[in-house]
Automatic annotation (TrEMBL):
The keyword Signal applies. InterPro entries: Peptide/Ni-bd, SBP_5, SBP_5_dom. Residues 70-433 form the Solute-binding protein family domain. CDD domains: PBP2_NikA_DppA_OppA_like_13. Its main location: periplasm. This is ABC transporter substrate-binding protein. It is found in: Periplasm.
Length: 520
């Protein structure tokens, strides 16, 4: 396998200059965070708000373009041995952490081999394949795998395996260390202040390793719980950037019409977010595949994408996002068919009572904005037409996270990032070895030994053609079992003032470091 080329550190800025846009130093970017994150340390917490803000504080070895090709970040170049077992990363020089200590190969080895192995359930399964991780010298790291792992280079984004300072974590409880509350990274912005319920302020890191960057003096993320207040803040110019769930989908058409605003839905290619309804298989009758299939057939996914999300995203066809490698379009979940759904419920022995109700289940609403409340109401109406009573429960973000992780739900809504490869972002939701009381694991409790085996085959195979065959088979099995109700491939709007430049420059969009973002 060929070594990666060394790209110019400032290539995105050079592109801007080539187009006649001269980067300008100074100014504060005002943005919004919704909901307010519990902490800012990526790795310890993997919820979207944490990753967006933490992406300015922390960096990974690599970043990725819209086609998921790796590009330099803290690693300026890398080589892969012909047998696919050895990965050598050559680090940028003169990189410092925000406390002034130099970042070296020792920090990289610690971050990958210890920190993320401990705190990240998803990363643990991949990094467990590393037989040896060594600092060859202060600016060179070598990882030797026990066996080839084809998607290994997709594991080094800042949202997946951020490089953390060894001297602030080694020998401590990683989750309780003081640096969790006051994060220290190598990114262009350092943590400055957090007034809970009000704002989070990041300041320019003057010793950042890219000469002359970042251009912004500060970024302020304002906590604005009310959706209409968030919209007003953007329209009035109080903030120059919104992302993810900040602006409700039904408000986006009006934002597109404003001449001073730009609306983008790109920058989510690396994440590949897929939204679904979790069925708790421990709760009857959700353990019956006929019931799960019937509930899937009761929901019009086209309506969700077009009428609730206003075309920002598209209906899900199955367990794989269409941007994820090895997606098979022929493996499709049951189509919308109310009469067929009723027939299946009859066959399952679930006859309607005098009020037309077959059974009652509860739904733990996802507290990420009004659109998810509307989704819950739509699902309740959809299930009602086949005789199922869906009772909605509203909770705050912390309660939702705790109850979902502890399996204290009948159904709920979730969306997970797939990170370009099924082993990295799909497998965790379906294999029985990942049935754990941890958020973003297999909280549904789905088990199928054949599915477990296929995911292992796909994980271990070095040949992309073999992986395609295996993952096509696993997709077909999953759409037969319908362990979850797949709803929509999400594509969030990033809306910003046209005075703001270089907002979306990679496949991870607003999760990137923003070192080359500037206000004209």
């Amino acid at each position: 396998m060929a070594a990666a080329a060394v790209l110019p550190v400032l290539w995105r800025v050079e592109d801007a200059i080539a187009q006649g846009v001269q980067p300008k130093r100074g100014g504060t970017l005002n943005s919004i965070v919704n909901p307010e994150p519990p902490i800012l340390h990526v790795g310890i917490n993997n919820q979207a708000p944490t990753l967006i803000i933490g992406g300015k504080i922390f960096q990974g070895l690599l970043r990725y373009d819209a086609k998921l090709n790796p590009m330099p970040e803290l690693a300026k170049s890398w080589e892969v041995s012909p047998d696919g077992l050895e990965y050598t990363f050559h680090l940028q020089e003169n990189v410092k952490f925000h406390d002034g200590k130099p970042m070296t190969a020792d920090d990289v080895v610690f971050s990958i081999m210890k920190f993320h192995m401990e705190v990240s359930p998803r990363a643990r399964g991949v990094f467990a394949r590393i037989k040896e991780g060594v600092a060859v010298n202060p600016t060179t790291v070598k990882f030797v795998l026990s066996e080839p792992f084809e998607p290994f280079l997709l594991m080094f984004d800042n949202t997946v395996s951020a490089i953390v300072p060894k001297h602030l974590f080694d020998g401590q409880d990683y989750r309780q260390a003081p640096a969790v509350q006051k994060p220290v990274g190598t990114g262009p912005f350092k943590f400055a202040e957090w007034q809970r319920g009000n704002f989070i302020r990041l300041e320019r890191f003057d010793e950042y390793w890219k000469p002359g960057q970042p251009y912004l003096d500060a970024i302020i993320y304002r906590v604005v719980p009310d959706s209409q207040s968030r919209r007003l803040a953007l329209e009035s110019g109080q903030v120059q950037l919104t992302q993810s769930n900040d602006i409700e989908p039904f408000d986006v058409p009006q934002m597109r019409a404003r001449p001073n605003l730009e609306v983008k839905t790109t920058g989510w290619e690396y994440m590949g977010p897929l939204m679904w309804m979790d069925f708790n298989h421990r709760v009857k009758p959700l353990d019956d595949v006929r019931v799960r299939r019937a509930l899937t057939m009761a929901v019009n996914r086209d309506f969700i994408a077009q009428r609730l999300w206003f075309g920002i995203g598209k209906p899900a066809t199955g367990p794989f996002h269409s941007a994820t490698r090895f997606y098979d379009a022929s493996a499709k979940a049951p189509a919308y068919n109310v009469e067929a759904a009723k027939k299946l419920l009859d066959e399952a022995g679930l006859k309607p009572n005098g009020q037309g109700v077959r059974f009652t289940i509860k739904h733990l609403s996802l507290p990420y904005g009004e659109v998810f409340t509307r989704l819950g109401e739509f699902l309740r109406q959809s299930f009602r037409q086949v005789g199922v009573d869906l009772q909605l429960e509203s909770v705050d973000v912390g309660t939702w996270s705790q109850r979902t992780a502890n399996w204290e739900f009948d159904t709920t809504i979730n969306y997970l990032y797939q990170y370009g490869d099924p082993t990295l972002g799909v497998e965790r939701s379906y294999v029985s070895t990942n049935i754990k009381k941890i958020l973003f694991s297999n909280v549904a409790g789905y088990e199928n030994p054949k599915v477990d085996d296929l995911f292992k085959q796909g994980r271990d195979a070095a040949d992309p053609k073999v992986r395609q065959q295996v993952f096509s088979e696993v997709q077909k099995l999953l759409v037969e079992d319908v362990p979850l109700l797949w709803l929509m491939e999400m594509s969030f709007p990033t809306i910003y003032d046209k005075k703001l430049n270089n907002v979306i420059t990679s496949g991870s969009g607003v999760h990137a470091s923003f070192d080359d973002v500037f206000l004209a």
